[in-house]
Structure formats: C-alpha cells, structure tokens
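Entry type: protein chain
Record version: 2
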Amino acid sequence: MSMRMPTYFISHGIGPWSYMRGPLREASALLERHLAAVPSELPAVPRAVAVVSGHWEEQEITVATSPRPGMVYDYRGFPEYTYAINYPAPGSPEIARRVIELLRDRGWNARGDEHRGLDVATFGILKPMYPDAGIPVVPISIKASYDAREHFEIGRALAALRSEGVLLIGSGFTFHNLGLRGPASTAPSLAFDSWLRRTLLDAEGEERGGALARWKQAPAASLAHPSEEHLLPLMVIAGAAGDDPGTVVYGELLMGTTAVSSFRFAPLRAPSSFDRLAA
C-alpha cells in the first residue's frame, strides 16, 4: 500500500453537532459513522491533520502556529453547553512552518497566526475521527479573494504534505445557502451535487481543475453557494489530489432535505458504505 496520504473534502454538518445530544446529532448519524471510519482508510497514523476551513478567511493564506490551539465558537443559537466545548488536540508549529514554506516557495504571501484556535469546521469533524484528540491539528485559512483557480493552485503547492505523513482535509459544504432550507433546498442541492460528482469522479488533474474553476456555470450553482467560502476548501483539496481519482465517501439528504456529499482522493478508488445518494 502507498504510504502517501489520501486527501478529503468533508461536508462538515451543522454547527457543533458532534458534541450535541438530541435530534441534530441523530440526524447526523451517517456523517458520524463516515468520519469515524476515516482513520481505518489511511495507510498510517498521520503525523498531523491539516484542515483548510471554510470558517476561516484571511487576505492571505494563514496557518495556525500555536502548539496549544484554543477554541473558536463561531456559531450562534446553540445550547449553552456547546460554548464550553474543548477539543484539546495539540498544534504542530513544525508542520505549520512547512505549510508556510511550501506556499511561499510558490509565491504566496503565507503567514502564521499564533493565536488562531480550532473552529467548529475543524473540531466538529475531528471529534468523531480522533475522539482522544491525540493527533496534532494545523488549521489553514482560505483567501478572501474567493478565486477558485487560485485555491486549486494552493492545493497543488500543498500536495507534498501527503508524502510527509500529513492528512490534508478541506472542511466546508457542497451546499451552503442559509436562506434556502428545508424542502426548497432539495432540487437545487441535488442538481449541484450531481454536477460536482461528475466533475470530481470523471476528471482528474488539470481537467478537473479547469472544470472546478468554472463552477459558477454548474446547475443551480448560485443557489448552492451564494457565497463560496464553504466550497473553496474543496478547490484546495482537488489541487492537492493531483491525478488521483475521486471517490464519494459520504452522501445523503441531510435533515431529509438537502443533498450533501464528501469526497476522498487517493491512488485507488474505494467503495463507500456511507453514500445514500448513489444512483
């Protein structure tokens, strides 16, 4: 088996669902099972998990450098106990410096941030994956440029991490329109999800990058992402994927109404036990 890490784009769920009790946690059961299975899909225990978060936007790509990152409660309207969540994973200043080095070598003005903690797009997905919080975590921002092609190229620059034992994850959503919820979201989310699956599974490398750069021409694109911050982590992951084929590793109508999917890129396609949207 290749020791090069696969890379993932994960539709991260709603708020701090993985720490909650009740209906939202129950509605996220398939997502939780998928995330819990990720460590078993890896060729080795990762040195660190680097998470490109759709919840962290900066003018330049920014990397959290703290050895002990704190918590960022970037959500509203959830139970009081969710604002005391602690996911005590260490950071990795060494890996953070490597991320910055790789980006600067390609011409980006990447910088470190010693104060940035773990936001919900990061700790929310890592709790089911590594509940003991024993793997170092390196958060990475997206750029305020919102340039899809630029983020794809950023991913290409970070691809070297995969051969260095770093698990690279993009955390966002394949559908993110807070003004379009419930049954009204079903048709547009399915239309965009179908296009995204074809694009990611049927194309590779530069062809895939070119198609993603034109994502605004996809069916229901403006409804799926009126603001694209939750899609940009996917562009980074697709760039880091290179010529590796994509696999859908999770898909469902979340809350019974909204089509969402997650993707894995690795040298060999892998069957998914967590895709309820498969034809």
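Comment: The domain at 7-265 is CATH 3.40.830.10 (Protocatechuate 4,5-dioxygenase; Chain B).
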